[in-house]
Amino acid sequence: MKRELAIRLAMLVALVAALAACGVQVPRAWEPLLEEVRAFEQRIGFQKTATFVEFSEEQGRVPFCGHVSPFYLPYSYEDPEIHWRSVKSERECRANADGADVYFGSVEVLGESGAAVSPEVLAARLQRFLYLVFHEDCHEQYDLPYGFEEALCNLIAYKAMEQFSQEKYGPKTREHLAIARYTSVEAKRTHTVKALYEQLAGHYARYERKDLSAEALMKERKFVFSKAERALAWRRGSLNNVGIANEMTYSRHYPLCERVYEALGRDLARTVTFFRRVDARKPTPAAVMKKHKIANNDGVEFIRAYEAEIVRIVEAACKDCRSKSDR
User: Fold this and answer.
1) Please, which pLDDT band fits residue 3 given cuts at 50, 70 and 90?
2) Which member of 42, 193, 267, 283 has the greatest number of CB atoms within 10 A?
């Protein structure tokens, strides 16, 4: 499995557990629903995509597997220290882990590759169906660094889900209330992830400075993960460095995207257009490397620098979007 494919799998699975919770099923007449979603997308400025345009019974769930040392906290799911492997089972994923943190899961579809609507997709809750369509179609609109685009497409997906469901089903219907409840919880969850990751990063920074022993680091890590599992509804003992880095990829820049949306009067179409202009103004990878004196673009230093350049462009274009802590 190519690294890019494994990364896409990891990012698609981040919200599966929450989306599979309470809600209503996708209607059997899903094609008219999809047509309505696509019409709504065009109204907010999306261009047509080639994702989920047909049905296929042949596409099944796609597994993924990631390993990383427990003594290294990855920046995001793109961090090259995470070793993504091609496996078919959790047993195979955990074999030969050699003490590494192991992250295994599967998704019902791989987006951004002309994916079809499969039986697994239709078996999901309505929230999951709408999320997949809006989030994956959002990725087709931009060519930003994944570490920024993930947060942006979650923001757009949540707001689109809320607006679409209110228009289609009505503000007091079971469908809309379930979707609104989900998006509200997930937005709050995103901020929780960011705070917990940053707390964990502080311990790893102390370890790297040799202010914290390996034993003490593992003790602090266990404490943070215990809090995170309760707050994020992860199974006890299941969260590790690959999992939290994957979650953080969606969360790091979400507050900034949220502030842009608020500054633009909570107007989804204006938000889509704003970030299209940001995309048009982004520097080339070569320019980022030259500015930050980075030798190659396959390391975590480049990933951090490229995302920082996007943040700079966003904040320059939206003076009211910087948080008080950033000023």
Assistant:
1) very low
2) 193
B/e letters for 215-238, b = 16+ CB within 10 Å, e = fewer, are: eebeebbeebbebbbeebebeeee
CA distance 68 to 205: 17
How is residue 98 written in tokens?
A: 């050699």
Residue at token pair 């989030």: 135
pLDDT band at 144 (very low <50, low <70, confident <90, very high): very high
CA–CA distance, 289 with 303 (Å, rounded to integer): 10
The span from the CA of 114 to the CA of 49, in Å, is 8
| Number of helices and strands in the chain (H, E) | 14, 3
For the chain, the farthest-separated pair of C-alpha atoms sits apart, in whole angstroms, at 60
CA angle (67 as vertex; 226, 105 as ends), nearest 5 = 75
> What's the CA angle centered on 106, arms 105 and 108, to 5 degrees?
155
